[in-house]
Design a protein that fits this description.
- By secondary structure, the chain is of the alpha/beta class.
- The protein has three domains: 168 residues, P-loop containing nucleotide triphosphate hydrolases (Rossmann fold, 3-Layer(aba) Sandwich), CATH 3.40.50; 73 residues, Helicase, Ruva Protein, domain 3; 181 residues, Cysteine proteinases (Cathepsin B, Chain A, Alpha-Beta Complex).
- It contains 20 helices and 14 strands.
- A six-stranded antiparallel β-sheet has the order 9-14-10-11-12-13, with helices on both faces.
- α9 packs parallel to α11.
- It is globular, with a radius of gyration of 26 Å.
- The N and C termini lie far apart (58 Å).
């Protein structure tokens, strides 16, 4: 109705998961990289979760549209199935003939046998079957256990089936249950997709308007854009609902620009009133919580993290006043009253550790000098990267690293952090799916990865070992000694079944390796490719440590 009025060719805010409208924030790129990681042939389960409306299904559609040619994907979008129905659906999606007796109820064995034969034939042909299940939080315990058993289908070298589970946050809680501990141990990568921040919300709206044919500035006043972010909580589906209704409201009033008042009226019409006691995940409640945290954050220049002895990471905490004596005396009794035989009271958290800019390393070079000894590198003078080149090492530097990239590179690195009282550098020492450990001299901090993301914008530098016999700096498109070494390592991986047998030339093998690792496919062997190949080939390099309690 309003498309022509605003110079649009189509509705920019449809809630259908059209991959053309996918706006790739850094978090969305990480989510897509996790799905691509699921097709590299290592086996196991990849887990992608996110709140309702954050774009999980749209990302999965983008993934399916760009799946490598050797991938055979089975996509199940209705997971409310029993074990037999699940296996039937998998066979249907893969096009497997089951030869069932229609007069009898199919058995698990009658379905597993042809599925296993299909997977073995796919492995022999260099194909990579992937099972993607959307809305996986609706899977029953029995079906999840069957999925675990499917990961047991393997050869001596590799698993035969990769499984990607996509679902709401309840899926993480489900997999954390004791009954599914064995399944949880099969999860090789996890990623939780959060809401957009204010800047990404604005870019998201501009992106969708552009895809729909709009040119020039978007027809939303700056204050209206800020209001959209606050009312939607940064959830893309809620942004779509609100923006679509706001454009309709502006059109009805003959306005060529959406005002905050139009946004407020649109919100009343598309969002149901919040019930008393509703979840803090609701945008209005999130806004109230944000105001409270914002008030606490007024303590200048200090960021604190707690390390708890419980299994889950403690949230970021800011400096708080000490409790009164009466409150302190009452706390143990409240904790004891809250505990039950099946839900013991948590152990007290360890003291918080302050992170300030003054406690960080003053420069990138200081960070490199800190990690140099782990590579047996001596760094005379003020330029560690120049010293590295004389010792079969090379610096790698980027301003666009991601959390998933940190895990893939798996090496101590220097990160530039931006704190309220200034910038500084810290060494990444350890990392898992939920927490990271950083150090600067004698100072050490363990913090949730979400908090790391809020302090770190992707600036990264580390070292890597160049191929044997190679001297000097390597650039894209390696030749000579580096090319010979790459050919040897990639061929070895191919023999182990980690790369498709169809890849013949060095360029084809490099492309297959890059595709398997979920990085940009160039065929030229970038520095990133060589670093990942070092890791895959077992080259002796320092690695990140596990998080210690």
């Amino acid at each position: 109705m309003y498309t022509a009025f605003f110079g649009l060719k189509q509705d920019p805010f449809s809630i259908s998961p059209d991959p053309r409208f996918l706006f790739m924030t850094e978090r969305h790129r990480e989510a897509l990289a996790h799905l691509q990681y699921g097709v590299q042939g290592t086996g196991g389960i990849v887990l992608l979760t996110g709140d309702i409306g954050t774009g999980k299904t749209t990302i999965s559609r983008r993934f399916l549209a760009r799946a490598p040619s050797q991938c055979k994907v089975a996509y199940i979008f209705n997971p409310r199935l029993n074990v037999i129905e699940l296996l039937l659906s998998i066979c249907d999606e893969f096009g497997i003939e089951t030869a069932l007796d229609h007069d009898r109820e199919p058995t698990v064995k009658a379905l597993l046998d042809p599925l296993n034969a299909f997977l073995l034939a796919s492995h022999a042909a260099g194909r990579n079957p992937v099972l993607v299940i959307d809305e996986a939080q609706n899977l029953s315990i029995e079906v999840l256990e069957q999925l675990r058993l499917l990961t047991n289908l393997e050869t001596n070298q590799r698993k035969l089936l990769q499984i990607v589970l996509i679902g709401q946050p309840e899926l993480r809680q489900l997999l954390a249950s004791p009954a599914l501990e064995q399944l949880a141990q099969r999860v090789v990568a996890r990623f939780h997709l959060g809401a957009l921040d204010e800047t990404d919300t604005r870019h998201y709206i501009e992106h969708r308007m552009g895809v729909a044919g709009h040119t020039g500035p978007v027809p939303f006043a700056p204050r209206a854009l800020r209001r959209i972010h606050r009312l939607s909580g940064g959830v893309p589906r809620r942004i779509n609902l609100l923006c679509g209704r706001a454009l309709l409201g502006a059109y009805a009033q003959g306005l060529h620009q959406v005002t905050p008042a139009v946004v407020e009226q649109a919100a009343k019409e598309v969002f149901a009133p919040q019930a008393p006691g509703s979840s803090l995940r609701r945008p209005q409640a999130m806004l109230g919580l944000g105001l409270m945290v914002g008030a606490l954050a007024a303590v200048p220049g200090v960021w604190l993290w707690q390390r708890s002895t419980s299994a889950s990471p403690a949230p970021a905490a800011l400096a708080m006043p000490a409790p009164s004596a009466s409150a302190a005396a009452a706390a143990p009794s409240r904790a004891a009253a809250a505990a039950t035989p099946t839900q013991p009271a948590r152990a007290p958290a360890q003291p918080t550790v302050a992170m300030t800019a003054s406690r960080l390393l003053p420069s990138e070079n200081a960070g490199l000098q800190a990690i140099g000894p782990r590579w047996q590198m001596t760094a005379p003078g003020q330029d560690p990267c120049a010293a590295a080149l004389t010792q079969q090492l090379q610096c790698y530097r980027t301003s666009r690293m991601t959390l998933n990239g940190l895990r893939q590179m798996d090496r101590p690195a220097v990160l530039r952090l931006r704190l309220p009282d200034g910038d500084g550098h810290a060494v990444l020492e350890a990392l898992d799916e939920r927490q990271a450990t950083l150090s600067a001299g004698e100072h050490r901090w363990t913090l949730p990865t979400d908090q790391l993301s809020s302090l770190w914008q992707g600036e990264y530098v580390s070292l890597w070992r160049t191929p044997p016999g190679q001297s000097g700096r390597l650039v894209d498109g390696y030749r000579d000694t580096a090319a010979t070494w790459m050919e040897q390592q990639l061929t070895a991986l191919q023999r182990q079944g980690q790369l498709p047998a169809a890849a013949r030339t060095l360029s084809e093998k490099v492309e297959a390796f890059e595709r398997a690792k979920g990085v940009e496919v160039t065929g030229r062997a970038t520095t990133t490719t060589l670093m990942l190949l070092n890791r895959a080939s077992g080259v002796d390099e320092p690695r990140l440590a596990p998080i210690t309690p």
